[in-house]
Amino acid sequence: MEELFVSYEIAKALKEKGFNNPCFGWWCLVGDGIPSLNIEQSNRSNFQPDWDKTFLAPTHQQIIDWLREKHDLPIHIHSIWQHDSNNYSYQYHITANHEEWNGTEHYKSFNEALNNAIEEAVKRIN
Questions:
Q1: CATH dotted code for 59-126
Q2: Residues 6+ positions from 86 with CB-CB distance below 8 Å
């Protein structure tokens, strides 16, 4: 189920950009600083986003919607048939305010392209 949620690194960056929407999970560091995903209803009433090294863990879809609706950063993932390897690769495309950013790398999976697109879009938030 962990693949449905953004990574610890993305969650940390989202907190810095002001993301504080209700989520079903959160990331925290355990033991020797290993990120651990905790899944259950976490909303503003029972989640303390100021806990040291604890970050909301939204799903990918929550962040795609948040980036599009709040920051006008729509993300598109494209599949590309690779004739030489006989399978698909994936690239991303982000548009905002008449500017476009295309991922030039070909990713082996949809989720890998999606994670890289989210990371790039979060960097673009002012």
A1: 3.30.160.20
A2: none
